[in-house]
Amino acid sequence: xxxxxxxxxxxxxxxxxxxxxxxxxxxxxxxxxxxxxxxxxxxxxxxxxxxxxxxxxxxxxxxxxxxxxxxxxxxxxxxxxxxxxxxxxxxxxxxxxxxxxxxxxxxxxxxxxxxxxxxxxxxxxxxxxxxxxxxxxxxxxxxxxxxxxxxxxxxxxxxxxxxxxxxxxxxxxxxxxxxxxxxxxxxxxxxxxxxxxxxxxxxxxxxxxxxxxxxxxxxxxxxxxxxxxxxxxxxxxxxxxxxxxxxxxxxxxxxxxxxxxxxxxxxxxxxxxxxxxxxxxxxxxxxxxxxxxxxxxxxxxxxxxxxxxxxxxxxxxxxxxxxxxxxxxxxxxxxxxxxxxxxxxxxxxxxxxxxxxxxxxxxxxxxxxxxxxxxxxxxxxxxxxxxxxxxxxxxxxxxxxxxxxxxxxxxxxxxxxxxxxxxxxxxxxxxxxxxxxxxxxxxxxxxxxxxxxxxxxxxxxxxx
Length: 464
Description:
Blueprint: H1 2-21, H2 30-35, H3 42-53, H4 56-69, H5 74-87, H6 92-101, H7 107-111, H8 120-153, H9 157-205, H10 212-219, H11 235-247, H12 253-261, H13 268-298, H14 310-318, H15 321-354, H16 362-382, H17 387-401, H18 403-410, H19 417-437, H20 446-461
Helix pairs in contact: 1-9, 1-15, 3-9, 3-12, 3-13, 3-15, 4-8, 4-13, 4-15, 4-17, 5-11, 5-13, 6-12, 8-9, 8-15, 8-16, 8-17, 9-13, 9-15, 9-16, 10-13, 11-20, 12-15, 15-16, 17-19, 17-20, 18-20, 19-20
């Protein structure tokens, strides 16, 4: 146990030191705190974006999802990835160009700007929604960290939430988004090395990878189907829902802001290649590990546990303690890299959009960061237990409300605040009704339903 803890603590200290070191190049200006002065290399921006995207959701929620559904989890990983890839050709380069021309330091500020002026109503409402949605999302990351420490170190689940809160507060408060970018790069490297190492160990000790199919079939033939049993509308709606979820990445402020930090719009192409090279490889490793978790735990007799803790438990069973510490740190890092991005995007909305009188105040930006961190901690302590449910809910709300308006802005569609908010409201109503009223979330991702309602409305209400 001591070696696990040693590996975990040593890796976390490294991340904190990297974040704090970013203050050496900080200019102390609001633009530097929120968008790193738009001077980030495409390599750093790409790795940061992919680390922020592949959060504790991948290590905790997606592993648990794969454990449960088997090969049909393919659509969660790769239909999502393809949707994300498609969105990069429409949005990111224009966002980089126009956000600088319009002096927008927050994603909400960009969405509220029609190319000529900002709409105060949109700034206020979208800024408030950003804080709510991203706080919910950040809480899921803190909860993921809590689950990891509980299953590996036998700590109380609240311990991981408190440790994560302190980590996010320290380097976000110290260096703003630049600290987040720098630590994301280190976290991305640790994440993919850890997942690759666990894949190799499972291949060697659990089952050769070419026998996965046979082993899964012996457990449950349903694990080998491409359509899950509870996808009551069939394969296409199920897969298309996850495709739209990936496309909805353009509505996630904590991710899309990375495109605003890169040094030039011409760098977006390299940023995209870095992003998807890492993302594809990591998705392959993650899905394979999820399948190995199902094989291993089915073979150890009666076992009742939270499926979202399958990865840290699998690592504990097959890796040397120091490597378990590294896996634990990678999982924790994935959660924190996303949480800090969400906290900073929320604080940007607070000072730039909700309370613009503090737009030029560096101190107010830091205070807003601490406020959001504390709020996320409270939600993590009191909110739903499932990381997967928290993440998919927050993601769906943001893609429903923000992604259609993002497309409207980059395509020069003009839409007034009332119609934009009306479309978002109807989309949210459809999404929540689909999930909680009709109970069809397993048939098609609820966020996709919300987007399919709000997107046509934004198009119909716009002047082109």
